[in-house]
Amino acid sequence: MGDIVGSEEYEQTDLQREFARLCKSINQQNKTSLISPLTITLGDEFQGIASDLSSGMNLILQMERMRISSALNFKIRYVLLYGEISTDINKKIAYGMLGTGLSKARQILEDSKSQHARFSTDVQNQQLNDAFANAFSVYQTITDQWNISRDAELIATLIKWGDYKIVAKKMNKTRSIVWKREKSLMIKEFFAIEKLINFIAQCH
């Protein structure tokens, strides 16, 4: 489950169109990982059901990458929770379902609006929740410092190719300039924390 941080500050028509396009792209690329697709339940909120912990975590990281590469200038708040759904699961749209899992996820999402952290997990294992919280604290520190409206193309290209020399050639920039930006943007650290988050999810 998730929502857009400070959605009231944006032009609503453009925001909803971009948000809907983002959710649609994630659904199209992750049909086997989603039991119920990401569905916008309100103008700025979505929910869906992932097949397992690793898939759910990968969806969050992929959604963040896509948000950045698409130069979307809004941030998303996420909740990943393991819990019960007492009604039949709607596999076509994540709507009209009930259960303590959904209720708890919605409460966590609401409570997190008064906090700085954009990523919350409740997977019924406190050590695992703490590990995710620590990892995402680093992840958010790196990505929230990025100026997406200014540097989206450079960041997306660095993330795609992972080598400043290739990026310099593709973007017709000097190697030294791209190398300095790669360091200041902490791209290598971004890759490292992404891998760590996925590793934690895959090991449990």
Layout of helices and strands:
Layout: E1 2-4, H1 12-29, E2 34-42, E3 45-50, H2 53-69, E4 76-81, H3 100-112, E5 119-122, H4 126-143, H5 148-161, H6 164-170, H7 175-184, H8 187-202
Parallel strand pairs: 4-5
Antiparallel strand pairs: 1-3, 1-4, 2-3
Helix pairs in contact: 2-8, 4-8, 6-7
Radius of gyration, in Å, reads 17 Å
Total count of helical runs of at least 4 residues: 8
Average pLDDT, rounded to a whole number, is 95
Task: Report the major sheet.
Answer: 5 strands, mixed
Envelope shape: globular
Strand % is: 5-15%
Structural class: alpha+beta
Termini gap: 21 Å
| Estimated helix fraction | 55-70%
Q: Spans with pLDDT under 50 lasting ≥5 residues? A: none
Adjacency order of strands in the biggest sheet: 2-3-1-4-5
Count of distinct strands: 5
**Helix/strand order, N-terminal first:** EHEEHEHEHHHHH
Give a short summary of the structure.
Helix content is 55%, strand content 14%.
Describe the structure.
By secondary structure, the chain is of the alpha+beta class. It has a domain at 2-125. Helix content is 55%, strand content 14%. It contains eight helices and five strands. The protein has helices at 12-29, 53-69, 100-112, 126-143, 148-161, 164-170, 175-184, 187-202; strands spanning 2-4, 34-42, 45-50, 76-81, 119-122. A hairpin with a 2-residue loop joins strand 2 (34-42) and strand 3 (45-50). Helix 2 runs antiparallel to helix 8, helix 4 packs antiparallel against helix 8 and helix 6 packs across helix 7 (175-184). The longest helix has 18 residues, at 12-29. It starts with a strand and ends with a helix.
